[in-house]
């Protein structure tokens, strides 16, 4: 039995113990990376690089979406890639979930962490990932690693985190080190704005002398479809109508997308990250807004607890497993979030954004910290459930109150999101 298979078999009890033994954890992790890295490199050196193979991964193999999907879809439409081999990597059960996805019929599937996965990483010339690659996997000199990342940062990341804290299995310094390990491997880092370019490069410890050649500030491919559909009234009506029909959402009801993020300090051993105290009061929401609105609830993929919304049938729709969050952006009449970066992407719709921060002081001072003051964000700032309800009822006045600031916000954070980012990235990565 290999070291990797032993770890996977006993992962949960190992994590439960290591969480409380930082010294042992750090030494064990270093040994694990070294041993697996040596094994990977020994294998990879004998695997010839295939100049026409591309490996894609989204959120560690949990989803088919984000910028890897946008780049992949554009490549499917480009005859220059007719002879290329496309490989999508998924975690176990996700292999079955996406087996019948029409857009993936051209692709090969590989299970994340398997021997075939490691061999594919060694063989594919191009890697297109939106999260960090495993620490023990290093690209060969003739391979191209495109780090798409998965959003514009509001919360501090990596080396920019100054609050000493610990999430499930990392101190502040440990997590920063893992960010730094990834940036050393990059060929390219995608970015939609000067703001994102600077903060992601700083957070990952990207060396100053490499930034000009590594950072591709061409927009986020993940937002191409949002822009294109929302700018086309016929396409928007058709997509929204089909979505409502699929979920059974009445045509007369407005749609509120509620997409909160996870908390670094909410980890429960044996379960994972949970979300309880910072949730909306759906009883109050339904009573006040149920005649006009429905809520699409999208939990962060880290959140492990189960949500039972049976009591809110016809009002709350759990769309946490929706393959592509862009579908939700396109159909939602308004967005409610907390500290998640989803609002940067949703801003491409030019529709109202509202913020719900029930734990603001704790999050800002004790958990992560932010890159700028939240008072700069356009839209209602709500700290209680009653304020959320009032903000939703006041949406007819949104443009008058926040329109000017919202336009400036979009110019700062989404200047390159014009619906053609994937095309520009492909030209830069594959043909320059």
UniProtKB/TrEMBL annotation:
Q: Which GO terms describe its biological process?
A: teichoic acid biosynthetic process
Which GO molecular function entries does the Swiss-Prot or TrEMBL record give? CDP-glycerol glycerophosphotransferase activity
GO cellular component terms listed in the entry, alphabetical order: plasma membrane
The way it spans or sits in the membrane comes to: Peripheral membrane protein
This protein's source sits in the domain of life called Bacteria
- Keyword Transferase applies: yes
- What Pfam families is this protein classified in? Glyphos_transf (PF04464)
Location(s) in or outside the cell:
Cell membrane
| Protein keywords | Cell membrane, Membrane, Teichoic acid biosynthesis, Transferase
PANTHER family, A to Z: TEICHOIC ACID GLYCEROL-PHOSPHATE PRIMASE, TEICHOIC ACID GLYCEROL-PHOSPHATE TRANSFERASE
Question: Record's family?
Answer: Belongs to the CDP-glycerol glycerophosphotransferase family.
The name on file for this protein is CDP-glycerol--glycerophosphate glycerophosphotransferase
UniProt source species: Slackia equolifaciens
Lineage of origin: Bacteria, Bacillati, Actinomycetota, Coriobacteriia, Eggerthellales
């Amino acid at each position: 039995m290999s070291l990797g298979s032993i770890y996977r078999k006993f992962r949960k009890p190992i994590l439960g113990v290591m969480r409380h033994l930082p010294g042992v954890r750090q030494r064990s992790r270093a040994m694990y990376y070294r041993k697996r890295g040596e094994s990977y490199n020994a294998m990879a050196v004998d695997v010839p690089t295939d100049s026409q193979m591309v490996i894609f991964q989204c959120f560690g193999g949990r989803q088919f979406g984000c910028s890897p999907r946008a780049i992949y879809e554009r490549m499917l439409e480009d005859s220059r890639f007719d002879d290329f081999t496309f490989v999508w990597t998924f975690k176990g059960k996700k292999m079955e979930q996406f087996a019948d996805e029409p857009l993936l019929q051209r692709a090969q599937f590989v299970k994340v962490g398997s021997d075939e996965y490691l061999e594919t990483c060694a063989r594919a010339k191009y890697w297109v990932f939106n999260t960090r690659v495993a620490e023990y996997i290093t690209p060969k000199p003739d391979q191209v690693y495109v780090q798409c990342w998965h959003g514009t940062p509001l919360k501090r990341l990596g080396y920019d985190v100054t609050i000493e804290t610990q999430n499930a299995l990392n101190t502040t310094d440990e997590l920063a080190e893992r960010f730094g390990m990834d940036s050393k491997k990059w060929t390219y880092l995608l970015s939609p704005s000067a703001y994102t370019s600077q903060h992601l490069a700083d957070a990952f410890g990207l060396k100053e002398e490499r930034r000009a050649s590594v950072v591709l500030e061409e927009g986020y491919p993940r937002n191409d479809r949002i822009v294109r559909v929302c700018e086309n009234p016929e396409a928007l009506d058709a997509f929204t109508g089909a979505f409502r029909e699929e979920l059974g959402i009445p045509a007369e009801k407005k749609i509120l997308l509620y997409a909160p993020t996870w908390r670094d300090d909410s980890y429960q051993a044996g379960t994972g990250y949970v979300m309880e105290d910072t949730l909306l009061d759906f009883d109050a929401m339904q009573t006040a807004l149920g005649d006009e609105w429905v809520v699409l609830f999208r939990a962060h993929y880290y959140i492990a607890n189960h949500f039972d919304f049976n009591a809110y049938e016809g009002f709350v729709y759990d769309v946490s497993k929706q393959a592509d969050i862009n579908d939700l952006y396109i159909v939602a009449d308004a967005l409610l979030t907390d500290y998640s970066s989803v609002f940067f992407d949703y801003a491409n719709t030019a529709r109202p954004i509202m913020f719900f921060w029930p734990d603001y002081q704790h999050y800002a001072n004790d958990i992560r910290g932010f890159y700028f003051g939240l008072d700069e964000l356009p839209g209602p700032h709500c700290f209680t459930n009653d304020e959320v309800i009032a903000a939703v009822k006041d949406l007819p006045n949104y443009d008058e109150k926040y329109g000017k600031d919202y336009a400036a916000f979009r110019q700062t954070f989404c200047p390159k999101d014009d619906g053609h980012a994937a095309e520009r990235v492909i030209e830069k990565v594959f043909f320059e």
